[in-house]
Structures are given as C-alpha cells and as structure tokens.
Amino acid sequence: VSQGSFERKQLGLAAAIGTTVTAANTGIALVAAQAISSQLTFGLLLVVPTAVVFFAYRALVAAREKHDRLEFLHETSGLLAQSKRLEAGMQEVLTQTRLMFRAELAEIVLAPPEGSRTALRTVVGPGDRRVALEPFELTSGQLVAQVLADRRPVLAPRRGTTEAVREQLTRAQLRDAVIVPLTGERSVLGTLLVGNRLGTVGSFSAEDLKLLETLAGQLGVSLENSRLGKSLGHLTELSEQLEHQAFHDSLTGLANRALFTERLGHAVARRARSRSLLAVLFVDIDDFKAVNDSAGHDAGDELLVAAAERIRACVREVDTVARLGGDEFAILLEDLATQYDAEPVAERLVSTFRQPFHIAGAILPVTVSIGVAVCAETQSADNVLGNADVAMYRAKARGKAQFSVFEASMRTELFRPLELRRGLQRAIEREELVLHYQPIVSLSTGRLEGVEALLRWQAPGRGLVPPGEFIPLAEETGLIVEIGRWALQQACRQSRSWEINFAEETPPWVSVNVSKRQLEGSGLVEDVADALRTSRLDPRQLVLEITESVASLDDESVTSQLERSRGLGVRIALDDFGSGYSSLGRLQTMPLDILKIDRQFVQSVGSTPKDGQLTRTIVDLARTLGLTTVAEGIELRDQLELVVSLGCDLGQGFLFAKPLEPQGIEALLSRQAGNGWPTLEKPGRPGHLRAVDDSRRSA
Fold first, then answer.
1. 95, 234, 390, 585: least buried by Cβ within 10 Å?
2. What separation in angstroms does the CA of 395 have from each of 165, 284, 341, 367, 379?
C-alpha cells in the first residue's frame, strides 16, 4: 500500500502471512521480555532463534519475489505468441509489465525502417490510456532515440541521475524510468520502457533493470519468430503505408505539398550541379468555389480526382504532380532542354481542361489558370514555387483559362495591392486618412455654396496614394464601411467648425460619398444620425452622394435607407448622372435633391450641337423634377460659359479649385467676404458670369 498499489487476489495471502509473522514476532518478544525480567542470561539465549527467524523471513520474501518474477516472465512470454493481433498482444504484455513494476505507464516503441524517423509506439497508462501503434517521430534528445542508437539500457531513478538524463525525463513527463532495447538476433527492434514508479517511498532499482532486460530479450525473440515475424513484416509495411500517407494526398493519391517541396529542393540542388533546367507549373482550377457551392462538396471532390487524372495524363511518368491543397496543383518538370519546354505542357493542360467534365450526372465546364516558373541559378525551391504562384495570379487577372510565364515585374505588380491592403487596414488607427474638400460654386452669384469631401491616404513611405488604387481595395475587403463611417464623422465635425467660425457668412454644406457596401448594410442611417449628433451639425448642411450604379439597383432596402436618412434632414445627391443606366422612372421614385451631371457631358459641351442639346435636356429634366443641378468637371472658361447658358445651378471643377485641405477652404471663406468667387466676376448683366484670366485666380 505504501508503494501505491496492491493486487486484490494477493490481499488474502498477504493478510495470512502478515498475521503469522506478527504473531510469531509478538510471541518471541513476550518470551524475551519474560526471560530478561527473570534473568538477563536467558534473554541472551534468545538471540540465536530470533536471528534464525529474521533470516528465514528474508529468505521467504526473496523466494516469493523470485517466484513472482519467474511467473511474470513465464506468463508474458506466451502473450505475444497467443495473440491474434500484434498490437493486442503488445498491449497485454504492457498491462502485465505495468502491474509487475508498479509503474504508471509501460511502453513499447518499434524502431522505424531504415531511412525513416517515424517509429510506432504502443502505450498503456497512465490510468486507462491505451495507444496502439501510434506514429511517433524520433528526435535527438529523446531517451528512446538514445537507447536505439547506443543499444544500451538506461536506469533513471528519482535520485542519482545525471542532469542530461533528468532533462530527458522532464521532456518525456517522467519522474523516473527504466528503458531497455528490444534486441533480436540480427538487429535492435525497438525499446521497452516502464515509467513513474507508484508511491513515494521507492524508485526503480538494478533488480528492476535486470528483470526488464530479461523480458525485453524474450519479446525480441518472439517478435522475430514464427508468425510474429510476419506480424513484424506487416508492421514494417504499415509503417511504410503511414509514411506514404504522410507524403501523399488522400483524395487524389498525388504527392502532397510536403513531398513536392522536398523533391523540388532536391531538383534545385541537382540543377546547381548539373546545369540542367527545371520548371514548376502552378495549376489552379478557375471558379472551383462555385462548383462546391452549386453542386456540393462531394461533386467538388469528384472534380478534383478527375482533374488530377487529366493533369497526370498530360505529363511524363518521371514528372512530379502534387495537390498542394484545395483546388491548387503543382507540377515539377526536370531535365528540360530549353527554358521554353514547359510552355507546351502548359498549353496542353489548358486545352485539355477546355473539355467539360461529367460530374455527379451533370456536365461541368471547367478551366484552369496556370503559372510557369523556370528555375534560375540562384533561386531556392520556395522562390521557384512562389514565382509560379505569382504567374498563376497574372493568368487569372488576364481572364483565366490560360497560362502565364513568370517575369520579375509580376512580383512587384502582385505585391503592391497586397501591401496596400495591409496598410489600409491600419490607416484609420494611424490617422493616415484625411479629407480634402473641393469647392462647389453658385453659377449665378459666384459664391461658395458647398464642398465635396474627398478621401485621401497619406501612406508613410509611399506618399499620397491615388484614390483609384485604394478605394476599390476598400470596397473589395469591406473596409469601405468603416472608412465611410469615419468620413461622415470627420466631414460633419469640419462643417460644424466652419459653421461656428464663419457664422456671419453662410457656411458651405458638405457632401459625403456613400458606397454601395454601406447601403447594402443596415447601419447607414444610424451612422448618419450619430455623426450629426456628435458634431451638432445642422442636418441641412450635410449631403449624401450616391453613384448612378447604386441608384440603378431596384432594392427596397436601399431606397428605404435613403428615405430614412433624408428624414433626418439631410439631402441626397445623385453623382455622375449620365455615366450609368438609371432610368427616368427610377429618378422619379428615388428620394433625390441634387443631380450632378457627369463630367463627360460638361467637357463635350460645344463640340457638337447634339452634345449641348443632350446636356440641356438633362438640366431641363432636373428642373422638372425639382432637383438642383451641379455641372462637374469644369476646367475651361468656355465650358463655364456654356453650362451657365444652359441653366446649371452650381459648378465644380479645377477651373474653380482642386480639392483643398480644410485650411484652404477657410482661406477662401475669408477672402470671399461678399465678393464672390475669386475667379468669377459679374459683367453687369444679371445671371451672367465671366471667367477671368487664370493668373488672377487665387484658389
């Protein structure tokens, strides 16, 4: 009990022996006490029988232990031979070994085949834990690896071990252990270990080591004899199967990424020595997700298997074909005569995949995009595979169903959007985004009526990033919703500042662009209300701009959000009118206040009578619907004169000013002071404006 374990079947025997010994000892003690009390000489005479009883008891205990050990060895020697399955036999041996050595766990590790590091481990304990033939990676610093290499046992009791062994025990989560080699007649077959002696008053001893070595010798012979030799052969075969599974794709049977990378590394090393050429083809199935979503994952798996067969049929037997994961495949072509020899293979693959697949009873048109990378002298395996991946993305960008050969310039083109995307995610918190404001001028008075808030990104190390580069990325990633919310807050605060600081003047209203993503969500109205509330801006000073593509959406939720926003007191402007496909009926139902005429109509005014008539029709239409018109993109004095003559209400463009920082708008408001726009002057005829020479423009 003090050693942490006892057998119920031995409890009666232990009680009988203990009672007998206790009675004998008590009797001798009473006789000795009586004799000594009578005469000391009589007490001395009892020393001899006492010593005889003591040594007899020790001999009995030793004989009992020897009998138990022999019985244990006899029982375990037949367990492997009697077992129908090797793993079950080993587990039974370990169960008996664990009990015999009073250990928390017992373990057999079978050595891996030559050239491999993957051994097979069978464990019993701690508690009810049982593991059978589990793949086990051997690494340096393990007790198992040391015993397999040295072919010598290790006794590691709780005290008296070296620091190195103590570290090995700690890594294996053991307090103490005995581990011995499983030795056959020809080789070391594995190791046998018992660990963590139960109880707190003892540890493993040299006697335990001798017993475990004897058991290991028996097990080694059993593993090499008769049908157990066949089991060991089966075990080696199983190990090879496990190794195959570790390096091959279970669905297609092709090499996996690990094996492909290993072979590519060897090929690159050989190329450096032999100067032979090699290439990697990175193959990606176009729109594979759509197949999964529409036909189901089983159909997707069937397509991957069929695709693997087609790829395999297009290359040589010596070429390596791998499935890297998902719908991505890679091909290693070695010993090429020229750097162009990979291109016919890519062409053959593209052509083969143009033939539809018969999957799950349906005909599926499937294409592939392929990137080709030829190995240069100084490249690593990762670089070659990465270059093929980059070239594949170029093929997709060009329209899919084709191949592209890697060029150095592609990497720069590919990574710039990726860098922008990562930088854009941090731009708000780092306060790299700013708003510039482009003036919107009354064409009848020449006064500053409003400004359009335009987003700018001042990226460290890159300077001012053009909106055309990062706005589409923001739309694609969904960051435009967060950026749009920030722009609303910032523009409202800035407009409120002008409202306070230029109270004597009529401050300009501010127009903020709203993206399709913002309208597709449900939080726009709340964002607008929050921006107005926190800034305390008069709602009439805020205009929300939507594009014509958004207006063309026949979506009740979009219309509802615009109507609810308008209910807060803000106005709605339709931007770039004429560039899309919005219908007249849609214009009538949309909650609009302002119509901004696209720059293409403004800049073509005067080119032909037809152009001017079309612009006039738009102005008349807006007036009929009660909408204020803004002519965008006014850059020349002639354009200004003509849009004024057509009856446009407001104008916007570089003729008046480029987008300005807030301080620039404040300077204009200070100079304006009732004198109108600096670039315009009234010639004396009401409602008519004349543009002055650019040299007099101060904006």
1. 585
2. 57, 10, 19, 12, 22
